[in-house]
Task: structure prediction
Amino acid sequence: MTGRLILKGGTICRASGSEVGDVLVENGVVRQIGGTVEPKDGDEVYDVAGKCVMSGLVDVHVHLREPGFSYKETIESGTKAAARGGFTTVCSMPNLNPAPDTLDNLSEQLRLIRESAVVKVIPYGTITERRAGSQVVDMAAMKPYVAAFTDDGSGVQAEGVMELAMQKAAENDVLIAAHCEVESLLHGGCIHDGEFAAQNGFKGICSESEWREVERDIELAEKTGCRFHVCHVSTKESVELVRKAKERGLPVTCETGPHYLTMCDMDLKDEGRFKMNPPLRSAFDRAALIAGIKDGTVEIIATDHAPHSAEEKSRGLVGSAMGVVGLETSFAVVYSRLVKTGVITMERMVELMADNPRRIFGLEGGLEVGAAADIAVFDTEVQYKVNPEEFVSMGKSTPFEGWDVQGCAVMTLVNGEVVYKAEA
Ligand code: DOR
Ligand code: ZN
Ligand code: ZN
Result:
């Protein structure tokens, strides 16, 4: 973007607090935050009075499905959904075909990002070749192009392989982000192994299948000195393990999703839109996750946006594919159910959804003088019902369908360029 852009009179919401004032962007870079900016001829000026001006949100856990599964989502549709949700950067997960396990296998995704992404997309590389869990990839070669390394979709089962991966990650100063799941403990479960499963005759996925691997990987992180991030934490035991690791000074971080913070297994219905991995856990787990975002144990809210086709999600809790979409509801759900209700402050929300993901994953941009102008403007007053038919994502399956929520993005800027603007 060349020239000047002014966001006039908004409420500027940052982790340090809120103030009413203008934001000046020049040649795609943030030049001034707060105070008054006098418009000059040729400036692009937007009146955002009464709206909340924030750092563009960052979602470090998004399945964009290309290359390989473009019938579920494309980089274009997924990044348009991101922009509509107020996200300016997303990190794309590697359960693709081909999986990004070499520079060559990453190149098609990088080409599609250049050609069709409307927000910034930073891919993950895999931890192991083909995500098959045995041969660790050449991290040094991929480091310049990826946000971190993960085999998301599955956990790395063999301890020796994970240890080697973490050794290499430590040597190359890259982050390992792990989907923690012990496959031998799954026993064909489809939802949380708790009250709802017992009452309704479903096979359960036990909490231990998650936290055992969190425990193992924290030990390996300590042994190897690797920076380690736990994906989509869903159990109270995992929260406690991460809390203890942080107390010991280990470079361990974790994320959870809006659905784990606002729902539990007793909210389940026998519909595919409630099926995701990890599953919605108990009310006690939800309480522990909420305590985690309050005390800083859980530093990131990420959606695990995982679109599937309508058909793949049509087979109830047992037969549907795992995964729900999240990019277009994340802000509204977190704002309505956690900020408006006083569970967390707006400042904490900015940390969880923008500042911390940038810091932990080393991503540029945001609402800071000198930074690339990745900014989102939110209407925090508007009230509406979540209607998946309005999503621009190709995935429509969400447990939030029909929820009464408040707040939505009205404008999203990437490098100072307007990439999304709500119809007035
Ligand atoms: O719910 C999920 N969906 N969990 C995963 O681990 C994979 C993901 C997907 O790719 O659909
Ligand atoms: Zn996962
Ligand atoms: Zn995922």
